[in-house]
Design goal:
Blueprint: E1 2-6, E2 17-19, H1 22-31, E3 34-39, H2 50-60, E4 66-69, H3 74-87, E5 93-95, H4 101-112
Parallel strand pairs: 1-2, 1-3, 3-4, 4-5
Helix pairs in contact: 1-2, 2-3
Length: 113
Amino acid sequence: MIHVYMDDWRACPPGFVLARSGEECLLLLKECEVDILSLDFDLGWGQPSGLDLVHAMIRDSLFPRRIFLHSSSPAGRQSMYQALYASKPESVELSAGPVPPELLQAAAESAQE
């Protein structure tokens, strides 16, 4: 079980696997069991966005246990949230904000074990 942090420039929190693009993130979702997925919207000029990844997740039915949206783009975060909320399985937890500090700490501590 892994935690994935998708962002093109922010530092990856301890205990997470970094995906710098939607393509990398999609590959991790296909090949690994993902507990926490934290998504950014803007992934670099001319690159597919976090919403493009969300559409691929929905299309391929690739959902982790928990999804957080850490994007600083309010419109992008809202678009991703609405698409995910309408399509996610009932068992998937979805938050329109970033991973809470206590969960970040727990992920970092479990990576040290």
